[in-house]
Amino acid sequence: MIKLFRNSIFIIFVVFFLIVGGCSKAEPKDISQINTHNNSEKSDEVELVVIEESPARSTSPANAAIHQYKFVFKNNSEKFISKSEIANEVILGNKGIVTLDTQKINNNFVLLHYEKEDKWNISALIDVDINNGHFFEDKGGLNLPFNEFVVAKFTESDLKTWAFSSKEKVVAITKFARYPFENNKVKMQKTSDGKEIYVSEDPNNSYLYYFDSEFVIVISGNISIKEMRTLSESIPSVNSISFPMST
Questions:
Q1: How many other C-beta atoms can be found within 10 angstroms of the C-beta atom of residue 106?
Q2: By residue range, what is the domain housing residue 144?
Q3: pLDDT on residue 109
Q4: 132 in Cβ contact with 169 (< 8 Å)
């Protein structure tokens, strides 16, 4: 089954998370009621995003993504994302996170959460809207590697993700309910605050994770391992009411 989404809005289940100034969350909009037309439209602007069915033989979440995530333009041309738009991939057992950098197409970042049963299927999608998002400066105590950023989040009972993005970089903090998995592609390190973190040994695919109580905390995106490590040291306990912010 094919799902259609209008460009420039947060895709299903996604809302802005406004973390400063006592602002409230924006309510999800009915996609069928969105009007994308205006007088300044160009024929090569994105009209829709189409999510195709996951191919049965995909070897990884990233491999599935390049066969699923498709742009439809106002001139009726179409384009699947390419490997060059895959900014980051995390695979932890039967769960995966793919970060897409679609800056050259629609100036956005996208996070795709995957789960594998018989094949890799998208379980959540976050469109980080750089074009229309509100930029914040208050980091809420987090050591983010940029000074101005937009924020988006996805929350369910066993999956919560907060995405922070500047115009060039994006980082996501994901909280999974703890589950069993093995990963021989990471190295355990200790942070200055005593956390045992597991760091990707692939210099071209940075991510880290650690365990906190009954949860797995994953940091992913197109920032460096050093920046991720610094960020992890500023994240409070999952039991904190303000998690992942500390203030």
A1: 18
A2: 3-21+44-232
A3: 96
A4: no
